[in-house]
Amino acid sequence: MIVTGPVGAGKTTTMWTLGELLTDAEVPHAVLDVDQVRTYHPTPPDDRFGSRLGRRNTAAVTANYLAEGARILVLADVIEHSGDVDDYRRMLLDAVITVVRLDVPMDTILERLDVREPESTIAWHRNRAPELQAIMERERIGDLVIDVGQRTPIEVATEIAERIGILSSRTRGL
Predict the structure, then answer these.
(1) Judging by beta carbons within 10 Å of its beta carbon (0-12, 13-18, 19+), is residue 35 exposed, middle or buried?
(2) How far apart are CA 139 and CA 39, in angstroms?
(3) What CATH number does the domain located at 2-164 have?
């Protein structure tokens, strides 16, 4: 599964919370924040966020997780185009991938960013969040769109887990 949304939507928090739910249910899984495997400098002009490298690195790490028994992989990543998911499918050997987009009111996102981002990057993040939200809505990103509102991470993760049906130890997918 790929948890996506604009910067500040709660992708990473939701990923970790889904991991906790899967652990509690004894479902073999792994979690990965793709930002951690695509951050480098300099990035190519046609891939300023290192997305291609992130997907290749994710494929390599996924193979190791699967070899260790993971049945579900929960990724946190920004998905801007349906082609991004197609790339993941090719690199992850045609795995079943469910994209979950977090739909969060922009006022809430901006409040979160104001708290978490340093002065040196806040303007960029405040501009990027509405840009990403518009792209995701226009591109109809998300097999499942979750209305986050003011709910807690556990409430959001529980809804995702229930709607996708991932709390069975027999489940296998990404």
Answers:
(1) middle
(2) 25
(3) 3.40.50.300
- Burial status of residue 162 (CB atoms within 10 A of its CB: 0-12, 13-18, 19 or more): exposed
Confidence of residue 169 (pLDDT cuts 50, 70, 90): very low
d(CA 106, CA 126): 10
Judge whether 104 and 148 are in contact, CB under 8 Å.
yes
Output the pTM of the full model. Answer: 0.92
Q: Is the pLDDT of residue 9 over 90?
A: yes
- Reduced to 3 states (helix: H, G, I; strand: E, B; else coil), residue 85 is helix
Task: Return the biggest CA–CA distance within the chain.
Answer: 46
CA distance 2 to 102: 11
pLDDT digit string (tens) for 19-73?
Answer: 999 999 999 999 999 999 999 999 999 999 999 999 999 999 999 999 999 999 9
Which residue(s) pair with 73 in the sheet? 30
What token pair was written down for 150? Answer: 């003011």
pLDDT-based confidence at 129, cuts 50/70/90?
very high
Q: Which residue matches tokens 């991991």?
A: 19
